[in-house]
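Handoff note, outgoing to incoming analyst
You'll be picking up this chain. Sequence as last confirmed:
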Amino acid sequence: PMSADDLLQELGIELPPAQTAMGVYKPVILCVNMAYLSGHGPLRPDKTLINGRLGLDIDVEAGYEAALLTGMGLLATQQTEFGTLNKIKRLVIVLGLVRFTDGFEEQPAVINGCSELFRDFVGQEAGVAARSAATGSPRPCRTRSDVSSFSPRPVTNAGDEPGAALRGSAMLLQ
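Most recent structure output, in case you need it:
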């Protein structure tokens, strides 16, 4: 099977730096066989957030790109936390929150930016999660999207370090 790094290269994806907490929380919590990633926003490589409101400052295509960037940030956080993306087994849930104007009704099309990234990276069966594309306005830091997710990780042997054996395991979004 292709390594996560090779797959990212094949998909033309260069992960941004992992985001750091902007408050009192942890970016990732590992609990038994699940990794929960805190909400991420669309952080550019220069560490500035993409912001604006769908239906006012930006269109669906720009929102889709922001959600894609958010998904890339989730992958970067997971890679930083666990040292690899090769262990991702299944994506379980994605919660996408979108900042928008009254009358904007295309939140699912925006969050597809993140969902399609995970589908392409993890695969059709394991990378397509249960999902909500919620209406959430205003968003923190005036960002366009904020995504969170859960992913399972196999139970390790009793002697393994916590998080060390992510065989086929945990992933992502937030």
